[in-house]
User: Fold this.
Amino acid sequence: MLRKLLTILLACCLLLAAQGTAMAQGGAGATARGTGGAVASVDARATQVGIDVLKAGGNAVDAAVAVMAALGFIEPYSCGIGGGGFMVIYWKATGEVITIDGRETAPLSANVDMFKDPDNPGSNLPFAPNRISNGAAVGVPGTVALWARALERYGTKSLAELLAPTIELAERGIEVDAVFAAQTEQNKARFAAFTSTAELYLVNGEAPAVGSIHQNPDLARTYRLIAEGGVRAFYQGEIAKAIVETVQNPPTVPNPPFRVISGGMTLADLSAYDAIVRRPVVTDYRGYKVYGMGLPSSGGITPAQILNLIEGYDLKNLDRAQAWHYVIEAMRLAYADRGAFLGDPEYVDVPLAGLLSKEYAAERRALIGDRAPENVADFRAKAGDPLPFQKDTSPSRTAERIEMASSDALGGSTTHLTVADKDGNVVSVTFTIESIGGSGIVVPGYGFLLNNELTDFDLADPHPNSPEPGKRPRSSMAPTIVLAPDGTVMAFGSPGGATIITTVLTIAVNLIDFGLPMDEAIAAPRISQRNTGFTQVDSKFEESEIGKALIALGQDLRGTAEIGAATGIVIYPDGSMLAAAEPVRRGGGSAMVVQPAN
Assistant:
């Protein structure tokens, strides 16, 4: 017990050290203004990679791919080629917004019983560490296919050129910071259960020391294989074979401390994978066009529903606590619909037109009072009925099957980056391996962690988000682009599991309704209501005057250390740019521009 307490204390100290460093610097490097292009990410080294690509003549898509590759090495517990993500692109020449779906897919072996406990046939394995750390949790990765699809359609540089900076970085090594050390410490028991992971990320069984050098020559070799062989090298070559072997036979130590089950992924599953170009979800909010990802992400639909609901209130001129009260209750209603109706559109008839209609929003808005619901601590909203507002009434009603996925209760781990180029093109990308450290399983000899995205499925049956062969689990990732009436372009997003949607929504409200600049909108306290009794907040918002006023309105606010780690970029009508990242959350992020303003 003493050893466990000391381990927890060390992890907390390391995280506080990281936050303290960022606060001591006053968020230095988290905001940049200028022209010629901009990049914002969670790490200065990755941001610099993107700036170098822009300076070398690359466009926003080129730079985004290069930054993603760099973060796969620098921030491996949040993202990488073992996972997947979503990309939203604003293409200035045509005025189009395009989205690319690189979400992981379930292998053909997937079914609702995939996480059953062999020792208790009627029960599923405990969520952590068992369900999140095994081969059955691994979805077919989509990141490399996402890179290839984006570059094929919009890039100007080769994948080999864009991977080169990270190959050099992974071979040379980087200094371990406090966040990396703390996240390793938090995952030490899981990582120690897999020989390949312990070899790469633990030093004599312990987390690496802050200031030590971390290298990953195996990942450098993997990137070289991809650079030389393209997308096929990952999905059909030796890397694919190594992934399948790892999923089917996880490289555990003898007698691991928890049950590790095998997955059924095959080479056919990998070979069949494709990143899909999809139509964005778009809604008009007070004259602003807000674009986001469509299904299987709920990160475009659910924020759009919330915006439709709160559009009926004059938030700007309301008492600030009353305004946030209406936002909280709109979140509650939209999350009820999310749980009831949303899933992979290839498998589920989702009443999308009804959910996004202004008339449906007006009907739902009538349920919102001036105070929180009675007995709010135990309150959960019921899903509505969008079918009367649907031109096509074929989708079946699933509203009685309201079920929250296990992963919805967790913060998760993900990363977001935002890029703009000199021509005004903008890219907003969120990508992930799910939990901090993903499945905890490194592919032996190839240097990357595999995701555990299949834990995003709901294990109820039937359910729009239940596991099926080839299906993509519902996601909360919400890369967003907003076009303002005056021609201003804004792009932003965040990690944070199911809190991503509410983080993006609060940033949008701060930008559009309350007129905050991007850097202040990102730094502001977060408010996250996900159809539970309590509302999660950070930055000690519950102790602020507005927080106290919300509590007086019956809201149950509960503080947490931090929610999300957003980045954003604004391009103003005169071509000048503002790039912003978190000044403190997750140790602080990094924003740069090609030509800084004086």
Observations:
- DSSP finds 20 helices and 20 strands in the chain.
- The domain at 300-407 is CATH 1.10.246.130 (Serum Albumin; Chain A, Domain 1).
- The first helix runs from residue 2 to 24.
